[in-house]
Amino acid sequence: MSQMSVVEATNAALRQELTRDPKVFVYGEDVAHYGGMFRVTDGLLRDFGADRVIDTPISESGFLGMGLGAAMAGMRPVAELMFIDFSLVAMDQLLNNIAKTHYMSGGSVPVPLTIITQGGGYRGAAAQHSQMLEALLLHLPGLKVVLPSNAADAKGLLAAAIRDDNPVVFINHKQLFGAKSEVPDGEHIVPLGQARTVREGTDVTLFTYSYLVGMGMQVAEEAAAQGVSVEVVDLRTLNPLDWDTIAASVTKTHRVVIAHEAHMRCGVGVDLSHQIQSRLFDELDAPIQVVAALDAPIPFAKELEDVVLPSPARLLEACLGAVRG
Amino acid sequence: MQEVRGSSPLSSTTLFSIFFADACLRVAVLILNLSLGPHACKLAPPMETSQRDEQFYRSMVRMRAVETELLALSSAGQLRGSLHLAQGQEALPAGAGAALRKDDYVTATYRGHGYVLAKGGPLLPIIAEILGKAAGLGGGKGGKMHLFDLEYGILGTNGIVGAAVGTAAGAAWAAQLQKTDRVALTVCGDGALNQGHVSECMNMAVLYQLPLIILCENNLYSEMTPLSRSHGDVNLAGRAAGFGLNTAQIDGNDPEAVYQVMSEAVNRARTGGGPTFIEAATYRTIGHYQADSGIGYRTAEEVEAWRAKSPLDHWAAKLGKRAPAIAAEEQAAVRAVFEEAWALPGPDPLAAGTQVFA
């Protein structure tokens, strides 16, 4: 084990896969000579060369479309989207083409394309650099979506994503980039589609992912001090969803809070809440609570952003409310 | 293209673009000839002209026969979905397909079934897919606008204007990174030149010197809107030249011209000479899709004038007495495939939720 930041762990996964498979190449804006806006690709050009680590123009639609073509033609491209917000200029390629090609081809054309990106707020980056857009990517079938909450998962999930024969969007959180934790040395794989129970509890389950896992752990401590036992489940992969782990936890605690940083309307919380109530209605002892960003664009000023984005206070209130009514 | 000048009903803008295309073609051919360098000797076409004439005719007749069958089904209400036909534009797939190897890549538009046919794969799975059958290329999941066949390098016809250019550029990128000499052809229309995605890809094609050929079928209308009302500058090859691509402007109704300029572009791409943009002047002598008469936004006279330039008719005349037998042979073969495909079973409804993921 080594102490690594999420950036270092992501870099380690890229190195591991570049070393392992000559079909893998990494490309995107500022990734090669500069080493990546957030240093995720630091040193890769030096160590793997210009055929494996390639700078692109600021052309997200073009370079994601090219990733699709390269994947269809036998490569395993890893594209970096500097901010997930920038995916919005490439939605046709992402959702009309990358996500649908395997299906439209009757399963005859695999698309082993990985898109690594980062999202999230709490840094005053305002409305176009703070978003969590996983729900948009999940709404149309065909993309796997992965959001690590720590360095070990960043390494293991990214390796699994690159080895997957499907398009995978791997979303880091900018608040977690510097967060250090223990990461297994050597080859490390975390299979896609496996949630992780990060804290056992008995009164209520908090389903969450990405940056809010850490916030949820802090809230679980505070809830415990008030006599409420919170189980925290890190979903890690939103498509495919680990229904077995979700169902086991609901069946155990009978109360559910779903928390994410993205907006409420048509989001992951609303979707998962529906799945839980329709499949496990008799297990529930209280209405499902969803904590999400308010349905306003992410504002710039701290006083405003603090109101729009989920806070420990809102998570705690939801957890206590689910138990106490 | 000169033959239409004397009595042409075309607008002065269109005429100007044709004059301009003609002039640019001469310049482009000159530039191509000057820039071919030591690889020029590899350009010798693999077929004799007479063989090519027959191949082009067969290819065009087959495409028209397929379209005739589809149109009949559509008119009878027996074909699902939109039907975008390419009557009048058959010379382009015929000429382009002949310049490619089986292992080269192709992406095309929703009107791109001709390129899929011309790439040489078996007809039955293509027709079966267009008819929504389980044995179709995509098991009935894609349909005519989404034809894929990896074995023949078909990386998709595409329902989104311009979207397939990126796919082909990416396949060209893969070919380059894999150090193979495969090339990628993408076919787009004049309307696609107004999509930002296409501009992005043209830039990257030049930046990375990709083995990519962009064949732009300029049929003078972006769906139902003429270039004069959709393009600030109707010189499409000029746009590509601005990005730094090699360019050529040709008569897209002449399969031999298409074949020649494609062969030059393919050879250049194979030998590291970078991407080429070919603007091919052509005309769709039928509506944009089955519910469009093709008249209203175009005059009947204009359509008739272009119908008189049908590459199919010109090549029939060129082949003379041989043409009817070839046409009958192709039509019978297509008819037989349609009959066979029509009788095939549709997909199992339970397959609807499968293959979302590999």
Explain the overall architecture.
The complex is a heterodimer of chains A (325) and B (358). Chain A is an alpha/beta fold. Helix content of chain A is 38%, strand content 20%. In chain A, the strands form three sheets. Chain A has a seven-stranded mixed β-sheet with strand order 3-2-4-5-7-6-12, with helices on both faces. A five-stranded mixed β-sheet of chain A has the order 9-11-10-13-14, with helices on both faces. In chain A, strands 1-8 form a two-stranded antiparallel ribbon. In chain A, α8 packs across α12. The model of chain A has no long low-confidence stretch (mean pLDDT 98). Chain B is globular and about 50 Å long. In chain B, strands 2-1-3-4-8-7 form a six-stranded parallel β-sheet, sandwiched between helices. Chain B has a two-stranded antiparallel ribbon with strand order 5-6. In chain B, β5 and β6 form a beta hairpin. Chain B is built from twelve helices and eight strands. Chain B has a single domain, classed as 3-Layer(aba) Sandwich (Rossmann fold). With 358 residues, chain B is α/β, with parallel strands linked by helices. The chains are: A alpha/beta (325), B alpha/beta (358). At the A-B interface, α3, α4 and α5 of A face β2, α6 and α7 of B.
